[in-house]
Design goal:
Length: 135
Amino acid sequence: MMGISFEEFIGRLETVQKDFTDDVEIVLNRGANRMVRALKTNSPDSGNDHKGKLNKSWKKKIEGYGKDIHANIYSTAPHFHLVDRGHKIMDKKGHEKGFVQGKHFLQKTIDEQQDDLQEYMWKGVYKRVKDKLDG
């Protein structure tokens, strides 16, 4: 390994500091994309073709900057909450006829992916910083 001068090292640290928020945003975006893919895979499918398919309704939006950056992952399907949490079955007169148990696939997916996703994102940030420091 070749040694670098103190000035060059300081320059690399300044580059890391300047680009850090952009690097975090890139890694967060990739992590959010992984979660969206997992949600699409784990979303139950009715088997029918219709406009508001649950597995095709997952979207993400990166908001904020710097310390306040976060990813919002959401479903545009109007029936998402009914499938995930369950709902009453009502007849035309408004009487309750039963209950459909929720699939709870959102929480299951989060529980399955959380540790792997955190590790993936930490490694992503570490690699980007290390690459800048190594030159």
